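Margin note: ligand = zinc ion.
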Amino acid sequence: MHIHAINLPQFVIVGPNVLPKIKEVLSRLIVREDVLLLRGEGFTKTPASAVRDFVAEMGLTAHEVAVKSPTEEVVSFVEGVIKETRSCTIISVGGGKIIDVAKIASHRQGIPFISIPTSAAHDGIASPIASIKGENGSASIMAHPPVALLADTNIIASSPKRFIISGCGDIIAKLTAVRDWRLAHRLRGEYYGEYAASLALMSAQLIRRNVDLIARGLEAGVRTVIEGLISCGYAMCIAGSSRPCSGSEHLFSHALDKLGKGSRALHGEKCGVGTIMMMYMHGGDWESVRAVLSRAGAPTTAKGLGLSDDDVLDALTIAHTIRPERYTILGESGISRNAAEDLARMTGVID
Ligand SMILES: [Zn+2]
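Resulting structure:
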């Protein structure tokens, strides 16, 4: 019989100035030994040192490691520090790459991690899935979700606005990700969970309804994006995979990465443009997808992503090869260059 295990974060705290809540979280998690604090090298230093002080106030020691990039070597190094310092919990203060390293290293060492995101650029903040750079590009690894998540809306609102808009793109992507999932269920008999799918779609609707608030950069808008991203993380925890949140639009984004194109564009920005095109492929309302992204201030064209027309067409024609086991609207053989050109032109992604 198929056993479906769901692992969810225990504590989720969202709001302004929530960092002091780390003390309450640590005491409710009964953390009594050393912790390992992972942070970035830039502006995450300040919130990380505030967290270290709060940890010290509890009589606990926080060992600190600055993370540069999410590579296997860095993960191994962090695992070594966990063993050496006998840390029982990781607290990650930073954006996606720091969360990814914390997620994988803590999972491999069998200890929990607490996520304190400093930006809201993609849905990794509450998901069990991490992305790591290896010899053959980036790979997605199933790890575990944070045991607790403290999202300080003041800190996240002070990150570049572009990050928050990228988060919107990653959430809007669920509109086609769920369609791809349903398709794989109908054509391939793949497991499909209505509840996880609904959670992912609900996040996209939330963005659609509040897009003006988000575009104005108000705290309430930032909160909407964070809550949407957390909800997407829950959808992945419940589905036990990234299926509800990652379909053909993500394959397009990953294809660009594989081709070494669009490195100036953020993940959610590329997925947003991918969603416009994949919604067209699905025969859905791609114009409303484009309108929401445009109102949020997200790019909707190749130029907006810093890409040439050929970059987009190259990525579209190889997208189906990126993750062959993930069945999407692109099918097994993908789309021809002519069809890709029609698609990109029709949707206004290329001129
Ligand atoms: Zn994504």
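The longest helix spans residues 219-239.
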